[in-house]
């Protein structure tokens, strides 16, 4: 039996590059699945033409969810 020549060691960056590639592939797959699924709820979209940086409580609504009988006023 003949001995195989020893392999040179992998670069220390090879596992890191593989991990980053795996993250990119998973992100792409999840983005494609989300795009195929569509919006979370039908008719859900931004309202108004205000700034895009809105925080909590800046939806411009009254705080009530219309169309839900038995849920208050």
Short description:
Helix content is 33%, strand content 0%. With 73 residues, it is an all-alpha fold.
What does this entry look like structurally?
Helices cover 33% and strands 0% of the residues. The chain is built from one helix and no strands. It has one helix at 14-37. The longest helix has 24 residues, at 14-37. The relative contact order is 0.06. The model has no long low-confidence stretch (mean pLDDT 76). By secondary structure, the chain is mostly helical.
Helical stretch tally: 1
Biggest sheet record = none
Radius of gyration from CA coordinates = 26 Å
| Element pattern in H and E | H
Class computed from helices, strands and strand pairing:
mainly alpha
Compute the number of strand runs: 0
Give the overall form. Answer: rod-shaped
The first-to-last residue Cα distance is 86 Å
Helix content: 25-40%
Instruction: Report the sheet-strand fraction.
Output: under 5%
What is the averaged pLDDT score?
A: 76
Low confidence ranges? none
